[in-house]
Amino acid sequence: MKLTLISSYNSDNAGFNFNGYSSGKMVVSVPDGWKVTVDCQNRGNGNHSCAIVKKGGDQLPAFDGSSTPDAIHGFAKGGSQTFTFTASNPGTYRISCLVVGHDDSGMWDTFIVTASGEPQIKFG
Ligand SMILES: [Cu+2]
Fold first, then answer.
1. Ligand 1: distance of its center to the CA of 117 in Å?
2. Using the 8-state DSSP alphabet, how is residue 75 labeled?
3. Which of 5, 47, 69, 85 could serve as 65's disulfide partner, Cβ 3.0–4.6 Å?
């Protein structure tokens, strides 16, 4: 499946959002074993990145390849980077911007690997 994550989609939470959602309010569920390609775009003025990590504060990807390159520095406005990984180990993870301070500012959403079923996105 393909997941498009747009950093600073709008001014919600001072731009610290993906697709307009922050602090876990967008919940993306993917079944175990599915291959996920993330298209990470940046519409903000500052640098941003996209990664799937296990929990807040983590700087390493939760799955092999589940991050844009050099995610701690991110990339600039107008840029777009993609990465592909395979969802595994059912549980709750985090879509995070790993640029320093951004996750702490709420620039994260929720990523769940389910045991089975179909991919789904919910908004809380
Ligand atoms: Cu960011």
1. 31
2. B
3. 85
